[in-house]
Structures are given as structure tokens and as C-alpha cells.
Amino acid sequence: MRPKPQIPAEIEDYRDEHWCREGTRQIETALDAERFIEQIGFTACLTDSRRPGPSLYVAVCGRRDAVMPRNVQKDPEASLTWALKDELVGRGNVYYAKLARGKTMFIARRMIPYFHAVWGVRRSEEKRRLSRNARAVLNVLRKEWEMSTADLRDASRVKNRKAFARALDELQAAMIVVPSEVFYQPKFTYIWTLGVGRFPDPLIRRVSRDTAVREIARCFLAAAGMTVPGELARVTGLPRPEAGRGNRALVAEGYATMPASGVYHLAVDLYNSPTPPAVTRGHSRFGPPCVPCHSLDDASGSYRRK
């Protein structure tokens, strides 16, 4: 069995800053969470330190060793993360769905075209790539636009709960359907809608798969500082060979270096550069400093420390 790759201490510190794994950078509000997601590009929702990559739950905890307790209902940090998830779904400023390999993720608006280019299903491909149950659910949503879980199950005539859940998961993974609201009274339910209704421009935009994989790799590397073998694939759900091609494309353009097989570093000095690297193309080589440890006062436009 291969030993687990070790992350250098300076990279862990870099990730603490960018993934909000510090007590001074904890996520407390939906505005904090949206800013966090926009800066790092994408993040898991309720994973903990045992899974690679950024996590909203870990950012709420503000420590790198956060572990989800067995009894999550009584854990204040897990409860806050769940409440923030519900609020973010309702606000509709970031994309939220169960994506590749059942990974529940938040995606910044600027990254939606790249994820859609890899995992999305175009309308012309639906008959070939979607199951009969998924198409039945989709046909109802295209007529009604928004429906609760129970109403959607009845209207689609997919009566079996497991089959219906699989159909919804399939449509989420295809980046066609997203939850738009969550209600707990009179009973718990999601309201489902079409993703293109909330994010029309990002979901319509055409991007080649090679470009999409490279930009997903760039986004992760910018916030992670380095990647070790298999890390990008585990975080995003990309096949490992394709994740490797995305990282090697960054090496080819000088954005990253490859000191060892499967290991990629940002091609800038993380600590002696004036500001951290940008996480998207179209900006200067160096982007604005990460600021989730601040809270933006909407009225004055000024920042205040927590």
C-alpha cells in the first residue's frame, strides 16, 4: 500500500488562509459563505478534515482538524453549516447541487461553465444520456418550472421513492435541475427548479472540455498551493488521467511546476509575492488577497474584523 502523500507545513498554512481553516477566518453568515465560495471557486458542503479539498463545514469550524460528530443535530457547527446551506440555496447567488459521484458542492458563478462543460447534459443529448424516470421528472419541471418534492414525484408518476431519488440525483449530476428553496413547515421539502432559470448565461455558455478541465485545475491549485497525486480527482470527481492533463496544461503555460510525478506547485512564491495568485483567467497574474476573515458592511462598503 502506497504511503499517503505528505503536504508540506507551508502549504497547509497557505490552505488554512485560503480555505478559512483559521479561527480568525471562520464563516458565520451567508454573505461570508458566498464570498468564500466566490474566492475559491468551488467547495464541498458538509465534508470534514478526513476528505481532501475545501469544505464549508470546515470553514465554519475555522480549524483544519474539524471532524463531523456522530450526532450532528446537537453540534452547533454542523447546525450552522446546514442553516447556511439552506440560506445559500434560497439566495441563489452560488450553484448548489449533488454533482459527480454524488458529491454535494457549491460552485461560484464564474466556474459554472467549466463544470457544465465536463458534467452537463445538453438538451440534444437528453434522450440518449438520461434515464426514462429522469426524463419524466424533467418534463414535468419544464411545464411547471418549480415544484416541491412530493408534488413532483406525483406529477412525474415515478411513485417509487428510491427510483425518484435516483432520477433527481441524475438530473442534478447532469446540471439540469437544482434545489431553489428549503421548507421545514408543515413538513420538510425542497423546491426544485431548472438550473438554467437561475444561471442562464453560465449554463448556456459553450466551453471546450479541455479548457474546462484546465480551468478547474487552475481554480483548485490557486487556492490549494499544490496538489498531490489523485487529489484533484478526489476533490472534483474528474477521472485521474483527465485531472492530470489539466494540471500538465498549467505546467505548459507556466502557471504551475511539476517537481515530481503527480505533484504540482504554483509557479509563484506563495509568501514573497505581493499578493496571492488569481483563481481565474482574465485577471492579472496576481489576484486580490483572500478576505473571508473580514465582514463587509453593506451600508458603508467598509470591512470590519470579526
Could you explain how this protein is built, in words?
With 306 residues, the chain is α+β, with helices and mostly antiparallel strands. Among the domains are: 86 residues, Winged helix-like DNA-binding domain superfamily/Winged helix DNA-binding domain (Arc Repressor Mutant, subunit A, Orthogonal Bundle); 75 residues, Winged helix-like DNA-binding domain superfamily/Winged helix DNA-binding domain (Arc Repressor Mutant, subunit A). Helix content is 43%, strand content 14%. The chain contains 14 helices and eleven strands. The strands form four sheets. A three-stranded antiparallel beta sheet has the order 1-3-2. A three-stranded antiparallel beta sheet has the order 4-6-5. Strands 7-9-8 form a three-stranded antiparallel beta sheet, with helices on one face. α5 packs across α12, α7 packs across α9 and α12 packs across α14. The longest helix is centred in the first third of the chain and has 16 residues. It is globular and about 55 Å long. It starts with 8 loop residues before the first helix and ends with a strand. The C terminus is likely disordered.
